[in-house]
Amino acid sequence: MNKITNHLPTAELQAIDAAHHLHPFTTGDELTQKGARIIASAKGIYLKDSEGEEILDAMAGLWCVNIGYGRDELADVAARQMRELPYYNTFFQTSHVPAIALAQKLAELAPGDLNHVFYANGGSDANDTNIRMVRTYWAEKGQPEKKTIISRWNAYHGSTIGGTSLGGMKGMHEQGDLPIPGIEFIEQPNWWAEGGDMDPEDFGLARARELEEKILEIGEDKVAAFIAEPIQGAGGVIVAPDSYWPEIQRICDKYEILLIADEVICGFGRTGNWFGSQTLDIRPDIMTVAKGLSSGYAPIGASIVSDEVAKVLEACEFNHGYTYSGHPVACAVALENLRILEEEGILEHVQNVAAPHLAEKWKSLEDHPMVGEAKIVGLMASIALTPNKETRASFAADAGTVGYITRECCFGNNLIMRHVGDRMIISPPLVITPEEIDILIERARKSLDEAYEKVRDQGLF
Ligand code: PMP
């Protein structure tokens, strides 16, 4: 058998991949007919594939490589930590320096009194932790009936049984008989797709008030928590109208519902602040974090919880934890990543340089015939594709047809931009420069032009 290296021909790697590697969110046909794109290396905001093509990664991997690719400091820290203490657990009253230091740092960065960290391997299992944690919290407080968690349709909270259940992706629920009992949903604040003739702010308020209606329908003594992404990411970078979050906060406060902000995408500078909750003025009791915590260099996630939640949990034994909760190598890598974000002023770069420049250029795409709204907060952005900007109409094809065509044009132009239905989304590394943003926009515009032509040829416009 050939040793598998980057030097094997692409077709050979693709054939072996298709034969043996089951991919997430990919059909077998895509793999056998087209083959996987094989990424060989990366530096800064660029990937290099097995054909030597340089691809601008406007998604930062899966929204995670916040400091960009190829930072040796993280590799050095990981190697050092592996030599010193490659593994030890944090169960049964043990700890180690990387887990201690990272917890302290996260407590310092997190808003309010979110001073306590429960480690996970990523965002999905941190959300699983949250389900058990909020139910345990209320049970310990003598209210075991308070266990329903309210979420939103089109939310994404992960792929585990718990994460998928909390998420509002119907296509995911269909596979595996989900959600689990005790999860309820309200509609999302997606004005573009669902706002009809309403004014966006009225719509935002109406959608937030669905939370109150749902709490009253279930009974406030039965609701444990509400979970939401400050800005929906995988649902299409949906930015709620300004009226939405203050009303959600008011309702959670009024009915004593724990507010879980899923910051897996919004955290660590993505919106220009350390957390999306700060950008949107949300006061969560629990934050889910992952991705940008280590800039994707090591798998790690966490639930960061308030003094009050921690106090109740510490009074009992929370029978929960993962072998790799607080993995020393992942914690050390995350700490180094946070040091780089902080010492290199990357959040300031987002706020003062990259986000204003990208916002101006991104908004300019609205003059394209196929682009309806262009939305952006910090360095996460979306555009809605439409055949009619005034009526915000959908294309006369299955949702996602035009988005897919556009994504393929982007690939052809060495730009990674994702589509969610007929919304195109980006979330580039936070270190992106204004010059690189100009290249991103140039490629995006070229891809939109090519897609527009294809869409017209197919009679969809
Ligand atoms: N929550 C949100 C908001 C996410 O975007 C994601 C991943 N896209 C997750 C949870 C799940 O995280 P992971 O894939 O690390 O399990």
From TrEMBL:
InterPro entries: Aminotrans_3, Aminotrans_3_PPA_site, PyrdxlP-dep_Trfase, PyrdxlP-dep_Trfase_major, PyrdxlP-dep_Trfase_small. CDD domains: OAT_like. GO terms for molecular function: transaminase activity. Gene3D superfamilies: Aspartate Aminotransferase, domain 1, Type I PLP-dependent aspartate aminotransferase-like (Major domain). Keywords: Aminotransferase, Pyridoxal phosphate, Transferase. Belongs to the class-III pyridoxal-phosphate-dependent aminotransferase family. PANTHER family: AMINOTRANSFERASE, AMINOTRANSFERASE CLASS-III. This is Aspartate aminotransferase family protein. It comes from Aliiroseovarius salicola.
